Amino acid sequence: DAHYLEPEDDVFRQIITAKKFGVSENEINPALYFRNTEEMLEEFAYLGRDKAYEVVVENPAKIASLAEDGLRPFPRGSFPPLIESAPEMLRKKTYERAHAKYGRDGKLPEQIEQRINRELDAIIGNGFSVMYYISAEVVEQSNKDGYIVGSRGSVGSSFVATLVGITEVNPLRPHYLCPKCNYYQPVEDISYGSGYDLPSRNCPECETNMRRDGHNIPFETFLGFDGDKQPDIDLNFSGFYQTRAHSFIERMFGEDYTFRAGTISAYAEKNSLGLVESYFEKKEENRPLVEKQRLAEKIVGVKQTTGQHPGGMVVVPNEYEIYDFTPIQYPANRRKEGVITTHFDFNSMHDTLLKLDILGHDDPSMLKLLSDWTGVDVTDIPIPDPQVMSLFTGVEALGIESDDESEIGTIGVPEMGTFIVRDMIRDAKPKTYDNIIQLSGLSHGTGVWAGNAQDLIKDGTCTIDNVIGCRDGIMTTLLSYDLPKEDAFAIMERVRKGRGMTEEQEKLMLSCGVPGWYIESCRKIQYMFPRAHAVAYTISALRIAWFKVYYPDEYYAAAFTIRGSFDSSYMLEDQAAIERRIAALSGDGNLRSSPTDIKVYYTLELVREMLRRGISMLPISLDHSAATSFIVEEKGKIRPPLSSVPGISEKTALPIVEEREKEDFLSVEDLKLRTGLNSAVIEELRLSGALEELPTSTQIDLFSFIDQH
Questions:
Q1: Do residues 509 and 600 both lie within one domain?
Q2: Residue 229 domain-assigned?
Q3: Residue 396 and residue 402: Cα distance in Å, rounded?
Q4: Tens digits of residue pLDDT in 215-246
């Protein structure tokens, strides 16, 4: 039995196992290092010289000889599930949707037909049609059930994915499109990065106001220059719907062929140091920090536990079994949860089995609530809307008067409300939708903003329009300088991965007139966000911001329901009290770095903004509060849910609502009996004021009866 390589490595196993078994018990274990042949023969010397040699040398050699040469944990190659009709169905649906949207007189514009053909040739030719087909089916089902789906990653770079409904992102160049006669007009002016920013224009043939679309994203960023890169189609479903989406996939392929993608978690730097410090505390030994850090470095990367991908589902072809590729297990041996995952970390099998990323996300959930509460179809919301765009420069659209010229209205807008992004907004001063895409890319990249784009904007070298924001922008910019397409792609790939450019590539860029500042900016980049991902996220963010401007009651109710870190005790306070809480959290301008503190701070900011807009919270009510949702009871009045009371979870709140719908509670005693609430929860409800009109007991004494009559 060997758990580490060298005898001196024993201390690392002691540190890791001390957390579970304690120090004293741990230290009596035998040395479990990897012994060499001589040491093994010595361990088995009690068997006699010949028998020990047989056990230590000959028998392991026999076992090894039985194993095939080149034995692998799982087979080489890609094994997607087989749906024989998928290529033809994908081609058919793509062209039907393309002709319905862009076709005239049975023909498609040449540019569009060329792009479709190039994409379909790559998708079908490399065996990716099944992934497209499955993704389109599950998104279509979610949409039919009333839940919008957002895309992640680079799938929005694929126009075929747009046409079959996998993503809303249109990667074509900015263009006008008539919804009545399908007149199509591409825009040659490269100053427009997104079709959403094009000026309004009527169709020259039928005078209908034309749609404006297209975000100029090359297909190569999704499937590679040759179209043969294994695609990742990551989809954001509403958290309300995610389980149903998983069930849809299971029904499509069968439970014996669908499994959750397993993960292996390793010790990181922070928790490794924590283990070391805890170990020496238990031993009551003081060690220098340098020594602790040395030990912690050796623990980084050691397996800690197993888990599951938040939304990854693995699909096995029906002519195989899962055991042809990987064992299966309960993650972290949690059998009661009933979730079965791949034993191997899925990243090691990324190109072997099909993985569908059916993720849960707050934005689709929030948009579902807002749509249901207001009756607004979120796909009809104009992007960009002038009032919504004004939130990036001030708060007038919210009806708030402010003396602070730096105040902006993006608090509570997904992706746009954090401290860092608000500072970026103030520096970058975005004016167009394409600027918002740039901001999203800058805020998610590494080595892109601080010390790079931020400095270029501040010193006037360029504006938010032309700094490097998203990875795809490098390729499209270099193409505008007439670099060969293959070179533009290769440079983009190197830069986005933090590898800079080769000397030859830099010479090529200079010879084509690429500015020196642009080349220097490329050198500093470590990681870049895909433009398609930025477009998908900003579409969602601006839709939510639209509700913030035009339906404030519903917006705040939805925001607190989905995203708030709330506690009814402070949400019911006046603005002055909220200001004091914000000041206490921020201290001398430096907010404590606790994630909980930061989340509470953002919620307090949103509560303060809500109060400044004349909207207030009603008290918690045993009779009227919902279990988990904030509800708008009347204009300017929002009722918090029972789950906003400290100590009351969703699981605790639901029985209260279920029981009150059957019959009114007669007393605190009756409430406790029918819901099973413990005394601590009852006390929290009492402190919240929810029990003020409820008698303690159902029994009534003689004197109370006389008083009432």
A1: no
A2: no
A3: 8
A4: 999 999 999 988 888 888 999 999 999 999 99
Q: Are residues 529 and 556 both part of a single domain?
A: no
Does 339 map to a domain?
A: no
Instruction: Give me the domain span that covers residue 589.
Output: 551-688
562 and 674 share a domain?
Answer: yes
Answer yes or no: do 413 and 483 share one domain: yes
pLDDT in tens, 127-162: 999 999 999 999 999 999 999 999 989 999 999 999
- Is residue 55 domain-shared with residue 114, that is, in the same domain? no
pTM of the model: 0.88
User: Any idea how long the chain is?
Assistant: 709
List of residues 6+ apart from 318 with CB closer than 8 A: 81, 82, 253, 254, 257
| The one-letter amino acid at 473 | G
d(CA 630, CA 614): 17
702 pLDDT higher than 50: no
In the predicted model, what is the mean pLDDT of the chain? 91
In 3D, which of 362, 358, 496 has the Cα closest to residue 417?
362
Residue 690 near residue 621, CB atoms below 8 Å: yes
Whose CA is closest to 346, among 321, 302, 314?
A: 314
Structurally, the chain folds into a number of domains equal to: 4
Q: Give pLDDT, residue 308.
A: 85
Name the phi and psi angles at 642, rounded to 5.
-60, -30
DSSP 202-214: B-TTT-PBPEEE-
For residues 459 and 575, state if they share a domain.
Answer: no
Residue 451 domain-assigned (yes or no): yes
Does residue 344 belong to any structural domain of this protein? no
Identify the burial level of 391 via C-beta atoms within 10 angstroms of its C-beta, where 0-12 means exposed, 13-18 middle and 19 or more buried: buried
Cα–Cα distance between 535 and 221 in angstroms, integer?
Answer: 14
Per residue in 518-542, pLDDT (tens digit) is: 999 999 999 999 999 999 999 999 9
Q: List phi, psi (to 5°) of 120.
A: -65, -40
Q: Is pLDDT of 708 > 60? A: no
CA-based radius of gyration for the chain: 31
Strand order in the sheet with 175-177: 184-186, 175-177, 211-213
Cα–Cα distance list, 528 to 194, 415, 443, 480 (Å): 19, 16, 10, 20
Interatomic CA distance for residues 372 and 154, integer angstroms: 30
Where do runs of H (alpha helix) occur along 164-310? 220-223, 242-253, 269-283, 289-299
Asked whether residue 517 falls in the same domain as residue 575, the answer is no
Helix 433-444 vs helix 419-428: angle between axes, to the nearest 10 degrees?
130
